[in-house]
Structure formats: structure tokens, C-alpha cells
Design a protein that fits this description.
By secondary structure, this protein is mainly alpha-helical. The chain contains 29 helices and 18 strands. The chain has a 3-stranded mixed β-sheet. The chain has a 3-stranded mixed β-sheet with strand order 13-14-15. Strands 1-18 form a two-stranded parallel ribbon. β13, α28 and β14 form a beta-alpha-beta unit.
Length: 809
């Protein structure tokens, strides 16, 4: 670890200008990293450095070297393994000819297909949500029923340790199966998936994030995680699942199953796919919370980086279909067909209008709760980092550095860790219930699903068991709606503290899980406690009669302090509770939680993205970056092609693994001395590979070997998994042939003068969803190229503008 850390160094800004940064190994959009400064010489402001993992390896570390596939996550690094998506259409001759041939009715038909696809996305997402809900209900019901019967059997005669072992064994078994599926078959399915989808919509290609295999493992994994009693929820995975469904349905085929249905071929490009993934994410939110409007706002606020008006209505349509589908099939499952009363996977229950009244003098109390939620959210994230650091440190000290690094990456040990957490969760919950003396009367109208009597008198149940011996969703609902007096303050205080620690430990396990429900449960517990204490310290208890409203405010404050959402979360909470009375207080609480939380640390998803070293572009450039220009951040010199280029040179450039360029300016003329030529267009690696695969050479076009004219369909058929250049055979004779790029290049790429300020470059790049931005001089000659990583390298740190280092993680 220490050896690796010593090799991470900031790029030089000193006077040693004789050194040059090495070429980027595996740079996705990379070019040579030498950057020219006016007046000659090398300018090091924009120089790229890499992390070298091959030098000075000690014998102890050499044991781990073969196992260590990635360097440890570091927010001071920017990974080179992530490629960019093409959210800007390449308007070459083929594209323009197809668009011009299409009639007005043709465009109307395309719009109808978009609506049909969004309907299918909502329907399938709702079905998946229904499957998850029923499976969790059945498995958790079996588990809790078996443990309850066992506890009741041994309470009178002794031997409750057997009940504890049974509970821990069932938890571990469920979690083991889910963790094996994730760790061994699809690691990208771990966690909620929201940060990955957020990156995808931002324009970053996360490997395997929207594949069918990922969807299957995600759904199976979240069922096992929730049924296994972990401090997790299923809402985040639903958002990821909806996005995967959208990515598959919109393409009309499955590349994993190698099945092409020959439909929706027009939408086989990143621009269209991005819009449908936005709809899928919104449909996932809608299915999870029963909040169609909240799903649209979530996709807008937290997910999508690009938006338009028509997309809003299509996303809302997908969200409505998702909610309707889920409710319809759940009503059939519950034996009440046609009663569409269940709002979503997370049923908060309806707040009665008489119960949810509040007074103006309670507004300051709500603001205080929002500030408390922001601080607890920041504390939770700090605790997550600290706890995992201490666990790894303890392993380092006890088992040596090599085993510690081995532990991080070995799937079998990741599964064992998840099983350990599941067993500890059951043990802690059992101990809390066993030692609790909070007994409440079990009335005729009690809504407790699995009431435990344990050592309580006949006709009473253990109140601590209501919180622990339940799925998290049911626990939240009981904290919202159980009448006053259902919990004593000690029960709520102990539960909040214990569940907080369990949630911190659980986050980061190799399981499919969300963080929404644990956050809501923690917030609901301390919010209800807050309401009870208010009624205790005041003389008039009628004012604070209903602790459920404080549970609702506390849940919103805690969740807002963690995920830092405002508008969308307000609408989600309002839709999920079925009452708009608390719209204003919830918004006030969420804004306070965000302001206070942002003062201490970033939101959970932003931290996750940083730790993964993803080149994520925020809405605006760093505030202090105006002194930087395109000339200083661009990469140069740039590999360019002529309008008519020799095939051998194209193959050699594409085969060069030390650069791995993905975009190439096409210039009027290139010379041997590498003088820049005037820009004529831009062509992508993927386009060149398709041209090489179909042997689109000038000599073939003018001979009897002439084949049919290439169409956009040929490029769409190869999308999104274009073959590697190594799989394309080019003979020695073919290397001497020429390739005419005029018809296939984008003749109107976006360009900027080299004196353009960084914020202006950033705004153009970010708003248009570009992958490459050509930098030209006064004579329109190519002098550099700006890519996502060139812009993402700069961020505002504690000491001002800082530059991240690029590493092959």
C-alpha cells in the first residue's frame, strides 16, 4: 500500500520543463500527453502523469502482485479504464441522406415507437418490481415464521440459543447465495447501481452496467439480501434494473443472448439509448415508491445530464405504466384483483388528513431536525470510510499486507464477509429483543406481522421486535403509523444507535442492496424519539400528540442528509404517503439537510463516483478555472488522417496499444514533419473498424470486387460491441490500398480556438454531450483535442484548483 502511495505524484508545475510526461497506456480518448505552450517548449500545466505499479515491488508485495488487478480506490486519481459514450450524432453523409429521405410521416412513426418503447420499459420494470416484492415477501415470511415458532417453543422450556442459531443460519444462507452470485458472476451488480447509472447518463461507459446478465444477478441478489435480514433496501437496485431494461428493450435485441428481433434499429446509438435509460431509471423509482412524478424528477435531478421537453412526457408515461403494472399484479397476488391500493414496493401507508396537521411554530423544530439529519448523514458517510479503513487496517496488522490486499479482491472472502455481517445482524437483533423489557398490549386491530411475546405477559408483544424482527419496509411503516405509546424512548434510542452501526458496516458489501430504506428507518426511529421527547418536556402533550409525523420528518431529514436530493425526494415522500400537507415541511427539511451536509462532506453518490475514479463532469467547471485555456488543457500532438488514407497506416494507428485513440481529426493534408493540417472532419475508431471489416477500399470500389454501398444499418448492427482491431484480418496487399473517409467522417465537428477559456470549453463539451472537441489555431489547423478526461482532471480542492492524476486502475 505504502509503495503504491509513493508513486502517486501530482503533475509538475515547477520549472523543470525538460521532462515530458509519458504516453498514456490505455487512454480511452487519449492522445500524446505533451501539451504545447505558446512561445515554444513544453507547458506542464496540462501534463498527464501515470501511476506506475511495476517498479520497486518488495518481495512481500510480489506475492500479491498477480492477484491485485486494481490499485486501491483513490479520489485523487482519475481512471483511464473508463471510455466515453457518443452523445453527439455523427452527421456524416450516410446520416444526412437517411434523415433527408425520411418523410414527415416517417418522423411521426419514430415518435410513436419511442412512446411504445417507454410503455414496454414501464411494463417490464413493473413486472420485475412485482417479482422482487413477492419473492421477498415469501422468503422473509418463511424465515420469520420459522424463527418465531422456534422462539415460542423454547421461551418456556429454555434453549433460546437454538433460535438464535437458526435465525443467524437462515440470514447467512440467504446472503451467501446472493453474495456468491454477485462476487463470482457479476461484480458490477453490487450495491444500488445508482452511481453507475448516474455516470452512464453523464456520458461515461461503465463496463457491463446495462447488460442482461447484470439485471438477472441484480434482481436475484437484492431478493437474497433483503430476505437475509441485512440493513439494506431494494429501491436502488430497482432503479438500476429499470435502466437495464430500458437499454435492452430500446435496442430490439440482446447481445448477451445473441438474439436480434430486427426492431427499433433506428435507436441503436448512444444518444437514443441514453434517453431510454433515463426513462428506465424513472420507472424504477416509480415502482419502488409508487411515485411517478417523483421518478421523473429523480431522473432529472439526480440522474440525467441531458434533458428535453418531449423526454419529460415519455418518462412520465413510463413511470405511470410501471406503477400501474406493479399495483395490478400485486392486487392479483393478494387476492384483490382490481384494487390498486398498494403504492409501490415501499408502502409507507396513507397519512390521515386529521393526523398530519402541523403548526407554524413547529417549523423551527423541523429545520433543527433537517440540520440534525444533514449532520448524521455526513457522520454516516465518514463512519463508513472509517469503519472499512479500520477493518482493513486490523487485517493488515494481524494477517500481513499481502493477505489484506488478497482479502480485498478475493470473491470467496467477500462472500464470507457478507455472511459474517448477516450473522452478526441476526445476533445483535436477537440480543436487543432478548434484553428489552418494552412490552406493549396486542390489541384486536394490531397490524404487527410477526409479534413476539418472549418474556412479556399474555396479550402483550415485545416492542423492540417490531423494529428488528421485520423487513425494513414494515419497520418504517410501523414507526410512521403505530399509535403513541407503542415505543418507549429507550427502545428507539438503542435501535437508532445499533441500526446506524449495522447500516454503516453493511454498506460496501458485495451484495445487491440500496441505502434508501436503511436511511429512512434510522431517521424514522430518531424522529419518533424526537417527538416523544418533545411531549415529555412540555406541559401540553396535545401539541405533540402524534409522534408519527416526527418520524416522517426524521426519515426525510436522514435520507436527505445522505443522498442530498431536494425536489425529487420531496415529491417522492408526498406521493408515497398520499398526502400533500407535509410538502412544505419536507422540502424545508431536505434543503436544510443538504446545506448542512454539504458543509461537511459531499453526497453519498458523489463520493462513490470519486472513489471509483470516474471522469464525471459536473454541471459547471470549477469556479477558479478561468485562467486556464483550451491550449493548456488539450492533448497534443494529435493523430490525424487524410481524407483519403492508406489502409496500412489506419491499421497501425488502431493497433497501437500505447495510445488507443478513439477519435481522429481528418485534415486536408498531413506532412512527414507532423505539421498540423486544416480540419476537414472527425472520424471515430468504431467507424474505421466497420470500414475495415467490410473492406471499403478505393481500389475495390473501382474494380469488379466492388461490393454494395455501406449503409448506416451496417454500423448499427455492429453497435455497441464493435469488434477489436485484432480480430480484423488485413492482408499485405490490402495494406497498400487507400480508404476514402469523406463519406463516413463527420464534416462539421465542434471546434474551439486555442485561446478559449476552460469554463467555456467545459460548458460546450458538457451541454452538447461531446466525446471529442477539436482545438484549432487562427488558420483552422488542428493543434489539439479535448476529451472528457482533460476536463475532469480539474476540480476545486481545499487549496484551490487541483489536478487529478491519470492511472490505469
Amino acid at each position: 500500500m505504502a509503495n503504491i502511495a509513493k508513486k502517486v505524484s501530482w503533475s509538475s508545475r515547477g520549472d523543470d520543463r525538460g521532462e515530458r510526461a509519458p504516453l498514456l497506456n490505455g487512454a480511452e480518448d487519449g492522445k500524446h500527453s505533451n501539451r504545447q505552450f505558446s512561445g515554444g517548449g513544453m507547458f506542464h500545466v496540462g501534463s498527464r502523469s501515470t501511476v506506475d505499479l511495476e517498479e520497486e515491488i518488495t518481495p512481500e508485495e510480489d506475492i500479491v502482485k498477480s492477484r491485485l488487478k486494481e490499485i486501491p480506490h483513490n479520489e485523487k486519481l482519475l481512471s483511464l479504464k473508463y471510455e466515453s459514450l457518443d452523445y453527439d450524432n455523427s452527421e456524416n453523409q450516410l446520416f444526412l441522406e437517411e434523415e433527408r429521405r425520411m418523410s414527415h410521416m416517417g418522423f411521426r412513426c419514430l415518435e410513436i415507437r419511442r412512446w411504445v418503447i417507454c410503455g414496454l420499459i414501464g411494463f417490464l420494470t413493473g413486472l420485475i418490481a412485482c417479482l422482487i416484492d413477492i419473492a421477498v415477501e415469501e422468503l422473509a415470511g418463511y424465515k420469520y415464521s420459522a424463527v418465531k415458532q422456534n422462539i415460542e417453543k423454547f421461551t418456556e422450556f429454555g434453549g433460546l440459543s437454538i433460535s438464535l442459531i437458526l435465525w443467524a443460519a437462515l440470514n447467512s444462507a440467504f446472503v451467501m447465495v446472493g453474495a456468491i452470485a454477485v462476487a463470482f458472476f457479476e461484480p458490477i451488480a453490487a450495491g444500488s447501481g445508482i452511481p453507475q447509472i448516474k455516470c452512464y447518463l453523464n456520458g461515461v461507459k461503465i463496463p457491463c452496467v446495462v447488460r442482461l446478465k447484470t439485471l438477472a444477478i441484480k434482481v436475484f441478489g437484492v431478493i437474497c439480501s433483503v430476505a437475509g435480514g441485512l440493513a439494506v433496501g431494494k429501491e436502488g437496485p430497482m432503479i438500476h434494473s429499470g435502466a437495464v431494461v430500458a437499454a435492452g428493450v430500446s435496442q430490439g435485441r440482446s447481445t448477451s443472448l445473441k438474439k436480434d428481433f430486427k426492431i427499433f434499429e433506428y435507436f441503436r446509438r448512444d444518444t437514443e439509448k441514453r434517453d431510454f435509460v433515463s426513462a428506465g431509471a424513472a420507472a424504477g423509482v416509480s415502482a419502488a415508491f409508487g411515485a411517478p412524478v417523483g421518478g421523473v424528477l429523480f431522473s432529472l435531478e439526480e440522474g440525467a445530464s441531458f434533458w428535453n421537453q418531449m423526454l419529460t412526457w415519455r418518462i412520465f408515461f413510463a413511470s405511470m405504466i410501471s406503477t400501474f403494472t406493479l399495483n395490478f399484479f400485486l392486487s392479483i397476488y393478494h387476492g384483490k384483483p382490481g384494487e390498486l391500493s398498494s403504492p409501490g414496493l415501499i408502502n409507507f401507508g396513507r397519512f390521515d388528513s386529521d393526523t398530519v396537521q402541523y403548526n407554524l411554530y413547529e417549523i423551527p423544530l423541523f429545520i433543527i431536525m433537517g440540520a440534525l439529519g444533514g449532520m448524521l448523514g455526513a457522520l454516516l458517510k465518514k463512519s463508513m470510510s472509517f469503519l472499512h479503513f479500520m477493518l482493513q487496517l486490523s487485517l493488515s496488522l494481524s494477517l500481513s499486507l499481502s493477505l489484506s490486499l488478497w482479502y480485498i479482491h478475493r470473491p470467496c472472502l467477500q462472500v464470507m464477509e457478507a455472511m459474517l455481517v448477516a450473522a452478526v445482524t441476526a445476533t445483535v437483533a436477537f440480543a436487543m429483543i432478548y434484553f428489552s423489557n418494552d412490552c406493549q398490549p396486542l390489541g384486536q386491530d394490531s397490524t404487527e406481522e410477526y409479534p413476539l411475546q418472549l418474556f412479556c405477559a399474555d396479550g402483550e408483544y415485545n416492542s423492540m421486535a417490531t423494529a428488528f424482527f421485520n423487513t425494513p419496509e414494515r419497520s418504517v411503516r410501523s414507526l410512521f403509523h403505530n399509535p403513541p405509546g407503542s415505543y418507549n424512548p429507550l427502545t428507539l434510542g438503542v435501535f437508532t444507535l445499533v441500526y446506524f452501526v449495522l447500516a454503516v458496516w453493511t454498506y460496501g458489501l458485495t451484495v445487491s442492496a440500496g441505502v434508501f430504506i436503511p436511511s429512512l428507518l434510522i431517521g424514522a426511529a430518531w424522529g419518533r424519539l424526537f417527538g416523544i421527547l418533545l411531549s415529555t418536556i412540555t406541559s401540553s402533550q396535545s401539541i405533540w400528540a402524534d409522534p408519527g409525523k416526527y418520524a416522517l420528518i426524521g426519515a426525510a431529514a436522514q435520507l436527505g442528509g445522505i443522498v442530498r436530493m431536494t425536489l425529487s425526494l420531496t415529491v417522492i415522500m408526498v406521493e408515497a404517503t398520499g398526502n400533500v400537507t407535509y410538502g412544505f415541511p419536507i422540502m424545508l427539511v431536505l434543503m436544510t439537510a443538504k446545506i448542512v451536509g454539504d458543509y461537511f462532506i459531499e453526497g453519498l453518490y458523489d463520493i462513490h463516483i470519486k472513489l471509483q475514479s470516474v471522469p464525471f463532469l459536473h454541471w459547471d467547471a470549477p469556479p477558479t478555472s478561468h485562467w486556464l485555456t483550451a491550449r493548456e488543457v488539450m492533448s497534443s500532438p494529435v493523430t490525424c488522417f487524410n481524407r483519403v488514407e492508406r489502409v496500412g497506416r489506419i491499421v497501425d494507428v488502431l493497433s497501437n496499444t500505447s495510445t488507443n485513440h478513439n477519435g481522429f481529426p481528418v485534415v486536408a493534408h498531413t506532412t512527414e514533419n507532423e505539421e498540423p493540417g486544416k480540419i476537414c472532419g472527425l472520424i471515430l475508431r468504431s467507424q474505421l473498424i466497420v470500414l475495415l471489416k467490410h473492406k471499403v477500399f478505393v481500389e475495390r470500389a473501382s474494380s469488379r470486387l466492388s461490393q454494395r454501398r455501406l449503409q448506416l444499418k451496417d454500423f448499427r448492427d455492429a453497435y455497441p460491441r464493435f469488434p477489436p482491431i485484432q480480430s480484423i484480418h488485413v492482408s499485405q496487399d490490402e495494406r497498400e490500398c487507400m480508404m476514402d473517409l469523406n463519406e463516413f467522417m463527420n464534416p462539421t465537428p465542434y471546434t474551439v480556438p486555442q485561446e478559449t477559456s476552460l469554463p467555456r470549453v467545459f460548458k460546450l463539451f458538457r451541454a452538447l454531450g461531446l466525446r471529442h472537441l477539436v482545438v484549432v489555431d487562427d488558420e483552422n489547423r488542428v493543434v489539439g483535442l479535448v476529451t472528457r478526461k482533460d476536463l475532469a482532471r480539474y476540480h476545486l480542492g481545499k487549496d484551490g484548483l487541483e489536478e487529478l492524476q491519470l492511472a490505469q486502475t
